Amino acid sequence: MKRTKAQIDNLLDDIAQFTVLLSDSNYGINYEPKYLNFSSFGRVIDENLEYWHDKKGGQGFRAEWQNLRNKVNSIKEYLEVIDDRPESRDDILNYLYSNLSYDRVDNNGKYTYRISVNSPIISDTSWQSIDRFIDFYLDRVDDGRELSDAIRTYVELCKNPTRVGNGLYQSSNYSYYPALFILKNELSPKNVSIKNFEQKTLRPAQDKLEQLLEEAGENQQEITHFIEEKRKEVQDQVDKNIAEMDDYKSKVDDWEAEKHEVLNALEETYRNKLQLEAPEKLWNERSEKYRRKAGCWTCGLVLAVAILLPVVAWFINSLHKSPKEITDKISLLSEQILFIGAISFFVYIIRIIVKIVMSNHHIAMEYEQKAALTRFYQALTYKGIEVDDNEKLIIMSALFSKVDTGLVKTSESVDLDSVLGLIARNSGK
């Protein structure tokens, strides 16, 4: 966004000031240079440029002030877009030095740029006298030829009135008319017409007043425009902050809802843990108990095989050596029957022990599955997966159903695979 005129003035007022000097002292009678800010410097240029705009013979003066106006315009264009970096101050000062005046003085960090002009200046306290002479000269020299020389001659004669007589004997217009004008004013110093008073005093004052009113209007417009821009910037910032707050509130609400769900899941998990902690502990203990029994019965199986196998072998060997003595005493028994009976007894004992071992292993696995299913169910509730009452009933039936010993098949056991499938389907929701 470009800076306004007021913003440019404020930017330069802290670092620079300006003063206008006359390159030729004969262009000023009582001119005293003043320190000007950037805005006042521009008004001085405009005042003098406007004065010489339509003056015959004032082309050189008009070009002088127009050149300054062009430089001031280029400075404005430069300052409108320069950024606000700290190093921009040095960039601005260097730009003024290169494009306005090489003559500058450092006054405690604030530079004074001295601009020389080869022209009379309206700020001269005796400008009214110079202005009347210019009109006097142009009324008598239609083309305004040698106007600049006539002005220098007039100023010099004003500073040295004793030379007026010499000027009356000169043939050149720029020497004769200045002397004549001074002599005329000396002879009739109060002979000023009302028309001349209106043109030279009232009208310039009126024009100055109109200029001030116009500048005041422009400044008011700039201020209004500046306030409106800042109001819009503030409103945009407020709207942005409101949008950010709404977004933040939405995120907080989402976070609160998420954490509420997590909290509910934790509460449900804790309740399930309280409900199933004791059964899980019992199932783990019983699983370990039956694992130990299975180990003991396995050792018993090995011991039984180690004991019974030699006994049976001894019995069969003894039966083979003396079958007739036995068969004679027991007429119903034959050698083959005794042999088969011994083998069957051995197999029967071993089979019984094997079934007991397998039954203990089976019961231990059943309790391990119940404990694992309990932990799995608790993990589902921890993740927030909802399980309705019917599904809970199926799960609890599987958890608390009677344990099958593996010795007798029952039709009342719940299919564990279907329970796991049900939980798996719920975990995908």
Describe this structure in words.
There is one protein chain. 73% of the residues lie in helices and 4% in strands. The protein has 429 residues and is mainly alpha-helical. Among the domains are: 1-123, no CATH class; 257-427. Strands 1-3-2 form a three-stranded mixed β-sheet, covered by helices on one side.
Q: How many separate helices?
A: 13
Mean pLDDT: 78
Largest sheet: 3 strands, mixed
Uncertain regions spanning at least 5 consecutive residues = 411-415
Task: Summarize the SSE layout with pairings.
Layout: H1 5-13, E1 16-22, H2 38-51, H3 59-81, H4 88-99, E2 104-107, E3 110-117, H5 127-140, H6 147-159, H7 164-168, H8 173-187, H9 194-321, H10 323-329, H11 335-382, H12 389-400, H13 416-427
Parallel strand pairs: 1-3
Antiparallel strand pairs: 2-3
